[in-house]
Amino acid sequence: MNRLAVDSAGSMLASASDDKTVRLWSLPSGELRGVLRVPIGEAQEGELDAVALSPDGRVAFAGGISGFAWDKTYAIYRFDTATQRMTGRLPNLPAQVNHLAVSADGTSLAAALGGQTGVRLWDAATGRAIAEDRAYRGPARMVVFAADGRFFTTAADGLVRAYAADGRKLAEAAPRERARPYGIAVSPDGTLVAVGYENVAAVDVLAANGLRRVFSPDVTGVPAAWLPAVA
Fold first, then answer.
1. In-domain check, residue 160
2. Which of 45, 115, 186, 212 gives 20 to 30 Å between its CA and that of 192?
């Protein structure tokens, strides 16, 4: 199981897995509500690394290593969670989908892509492309929205990036030398961004405006080689 997503009410959980399915679960009971299936093929084709839910839980988006076997490109799939039917897809992506996020108002979908292909932004309802940033020197790892529509990414090239709601890049920073940012979370008021790393046992908290470091929690004694997840 690679990713989890929850709707804004905390009543539905979606999980994306190497078994090539998205599973929907009721919260807090944990009862299985249904299984969403993308097109699959041999070997890794169809393995899912990313899932996101619309705030109202009515729409699920999923992606991963999917589409390359027949299109030689990758795709994101859109599902109606009530009928559990696929309702659309976003094709022709240049690399696998590592992470997905939907904005708090449900209008925008962002994807962190593999390789050096960066981040993309779409209208979540129509699939219309809004913006992209391909100036990445390593895989984009995660993407997260603030309540006002700004979004932030981490990448294996060492950078954290901040974007406006329309996809314009606002800032980028390397919080820690030779560290690869991975997990990322935004404070509810949108003023702080927490970052974890895939190769360092450290966490940094940055100012959302400008991405300067505000403080680094003391992790002395934490028995871990790295701290990739933050919340």
1. yes
2. 115
> In degrees rounded to 5, what are phi and psi of residue 3?
-140, 155
In a domain, 136, yes or no: yes
Q: What is the pTM of this model?
A: 0.95
Query: Structural domain of residue 137, as residue ranges?
Result: 3-179
Q: Which helix (H) or strand (E) holds 179?
A: none
Tokens in use for 94?
Answer: 């240049």
What residues contact 166, with CB distance under 8 A and at least 6 apart? Answer: 130, 131
Give dist(CA 144, CA 188) in Å, integer: 12
Residue 186 lies in a domain: no
> pLDDT by residue (tens digit) across 107-149?
999 999 999 999 999 999 999 999 999 999 999 999 999 999 9
Compute the 3-state secondary structure of the chain and give helix, strand, coil in percent, each to the nearest 5. 0, 50, 50
* Percent of the residues in the chain that have a pLDDT greater than 90, as a whole number: 99
